[in-house]
Amino acid sequence: MSGTLTIDTTTGTATAVNVALSSPVSGTYTVLGGYSVGAAYYALGALLAGSPSYPNLTLAIPGNTLVGYTGGALCSLASTCGGIVGGVWEDDETLSRLSSGSLTAQSPSTSVPALSPWALGALTILLGAFAVLMLRRAVSIRG
User: Fold this and answer.
1) Tens of pLDDT along 33-59?
2) What is the total count of domains within the chain?
3) Distances from the Cα of 26 to the Cαs of 55, 74, 122, in angstroms?
């Protein structure tokens, strides 16, 4: 499994899940919700977008909140949380358990998009026209 889980660490809510899993359960998932299960783990449920009920992705994240979450191992066969393991319910009876996994925190992008040459040219023309207009006003006020 790989992909992106978007978490608002201020409010402690997951807002989006986009994961690549083996077919037919790969794709963008809609977050159904999450809740604390005691102090052991936080359960997060997500449903494949456009699907009425399955596949259903269930992640178990160590700890009881996502507020201030900084990443770490997921509850899996390699790292159980008191016997709890996340996975994907493919149907009513088939659960594919997560063998291992972790979440890595990434800072939001703070890059500024670059202007295209066309936009830069248009901006230059507008600024030039503005400068000419201001120069004409200054000349007409003095003259």
Assistant:
1) 888 888 889 898 988 888 888 888 899
2) 2
3) 9, 19, 43
